[in-house]
User: Fold these one by one.
Assistant:
Number 1:
Amino acid sequence: MSIILQCGRIRYMISYLKGKILEKGLTYIILENQGIGYKVFVTPEALTKPIGDELALYTYHKISDDGQALFGLADFNTLQFFEMLITVSGVGPKVALAIISAAPVESVRQAIAAQDSGIFTRISGVGLKTAEKIIVELKNKVGPSGVSGGASSEIFDALLALGYNQREVRDVVNKIDNNQPQEQQLKQALQKLGNK
């Protein structure tokens, strides 16, 4: 668990959880860690684990005016891809989780690189317009072979931690040069946000 200082307030960003499955819902589990039960939205794969089993998850901690929610992914690479998906305007954490649940991450990356919208339009809540937006906004980030650089998700998190809202961060992250070192990308993003 990491602590991020934002605008004079301390926010706790939960990035990893390991514990025992106490309960399961249709889309979530209750994971017990050091006597605390965390509700975590997970993929169908995680839901196949029986109650009582131990499970380790990398998590995306969504904090908004509406409340907080945790989304659990099987490994760090999947978490990074999930965070890249939510940089697309119109794709929230629940839609990103549905995409990752529908197909292996490598298949989704390859579909983006090949500009194949079919993999997305089969998912409930993802129309053709959103599918095309995902492809347009992420094709340069996954590269021609579907390999992702992963830096943009870290820039996205860093800008959120500095107090910028998700909408303006998404717009800026999609305009910066992903071939630059991360420090330069952050500097570029901050310059663009300063000019708004």
Number 2:
Amino acid sequence: MRGYVLNRYGGATAMELREVPKPVAGVGELLIRVHAAGLNPVDYKMRDGKMRVIARPELPRVAGSELAGVVEAVGPGVTRFSEGDRVFARVDKMKLGAFAEHVAVREELVAAIPSGLDFVQAAGLPLAGLTALQALRDELAVTAGDRVFISGGAGGVGTLAIQLAKWMGAEVATTASPRGETLVRSLGADHVIDYTQERFKHVLRDYDAALDLVGGDSLTDSFAILKRGARTVSIAGLPEPDTARKDLDGGPWLTVLFWLASARLRRQARRHGVGYRYMFMHPSGADLALLGRLVDENRLKVIIDRTFPFAQIADAFAYLEQGRAKGKVAVRMV
């Protein structure tokens, strides 16, 4: 079968499309015939070697984090799925493997594709959807009436985060370019700041929570718009001690490393009387099932910017790395 393989750490040429052995379904696993896979910044950050402190899988390895397809075989102990089921998943962070024609995935990481999604849309939901859901629900504890700021609302995570925050009953502000404003407003954003013209910290005040998807000045500016005691959760800043303890089960050395790396950011947050948390999502079939129900209830839709054939996955990555996609970028195997 064909797979997009991470051979070494480096630039675009560190990955190649080539023939690889077809996996088999082990105990508790599903063998999935992949129809489509989503591309994410974490994939090229892994390729570039920026994730080596956190995850160092043995190379070479088929890359890829999320997929949608059809169950081709089930391993011993599988009880919830059968051959022919349409499914989607965020794969195990250490195993990877979504950029291939077949992949074996643990049953607990898989959910049924909602009837309202095709394979490409389903492939674009797992990583971004789980990130947005777990940040808003578990880390920021968003409830009805909260005022929530989400930076970069037109991106893959942002488009889903806006909708989930509205489902939770929040008032949502976001940043977007003029090209993205129509999209984020269509998803429910109440206030849109054109980041090409002004900084949101000069416009917004007394927000209950912030989800940072951009990093840099956008992250530090978010501290200034929050109520005292509120918190920013980021997926684009620097990991802090809770990242090691809660997300990575890291030992003391990783906790200390992240404490040092994030010291300046945490000081800036404290000066504003707010908290800072960097979060890694965790794969969860149960959370994917919840997202699927929201799709079926017409409360959540997946925005796909562009789809490429699998043979052009290198071009898909080049496009994703330009940073201008509105929604998700995906590749289609079938």
Number 3:
Amino acid sequence: MGLFYGWVIVAVGIVVGCISMGGVMSLGVFLQPMADSVGWSHTGIAAASTLAFLWMGVGGFLWGWLYDRYGARAVVLFGGLLQGVGLVVASQAQSLLVFLIVYGTAAGLAAGAAYVPLTAATASWFVRHRSLAVSLVSAGLALGTTLMAPLARWLILAHDWRFAMLTLGIIAWTIILPAALLLRPAPATGGTPGANPFASGGVPADMTVGQALKMPVFWILSLANFACCAAHSGPIFHMVSYAAYCGVAPLTAATVLGAAGLAALFGRILCGLLADHTGAKRTLVGCLMLQALAIALFAAAHELDALYAVSILFGFSYGGAMPLYAILVREHFPAKIMGRVFGVVAMIASLGMALGPPVGGWLFDQFGGYGWLYIASSGIGIAAALMAMTVRPHPPRPMVLATAR
């Protein structure tokens, strides 16, 4: 028996997701070198990251609609082309305004062009191992921080920030564009891009997007994802600052965030395996409860060992939760509208990601510490778990052919 082509889709998702998300997540490495070189403020440069995440969320529905209409290959090709152009042009920007417009827009839209279509495509190719497959693609997104940021740092030290950003743009072209050509629509009836004949049991194949948006399960998943992201985005953004606030040396404080990121990578994979056996809903509820607990424990963690332990628990829980929303969306909605429905869910979730960092900063300024951030974030995390509990049980899947891997 030959290799099931769905695993090729997974491999493409891992590689493309790593490069695309790396273009957004590596900006922090450029912060100080850019400020030293061109004199732009830290706040101004960091604003490009905020714009990128907002564009990533806003573009979610657009990319989902294009995926449903044209398939993953066309969308990812355009996204790779856009990312390369954005990074190359941003590397030559002579004013902060031009940099904000080019980098903030291009990097954010390009990352969204990878996240939503590749997640939707992977979910459409798989039935039996769907949770594992989607989680592996999600792990590829997490690799963007792990691999691309150190590469960018090395290039900056060897040359300068402009050369490093230019190189990342060229890498996007040379890797994403050829990889996108390997993408294919799942085996379909009627030639619908991304469709799969093995629809989830009990899901009407002719459901429209308008009907999907009126279903309670759509809003439950969207709001749970929003609350989940709002709960963990503040602690993630302020993790290094909190460690320094506790007296940890600045360079060592950064490794606390690194430990959380590494744990998140393993969490995505292991929770994907678990979801294939126990169900995505149960696994998601467990991850959300664990996340709320870990956030609360930060308030009591002040020594370095405790901070490492809590950050690992925290990273595992939020990393494990993130791919499961896409799996639940696919279980409750047909493949032909998966891109648009998941695009809206991702867009709503991105608003939660944008909420945590500024609210956490405001709480710190008001109360002189991070205690209220962890109390509020833990409470929001519990609310996310309670919402996820109300998702109706998914009906048993029908018998499928052996090719539905």
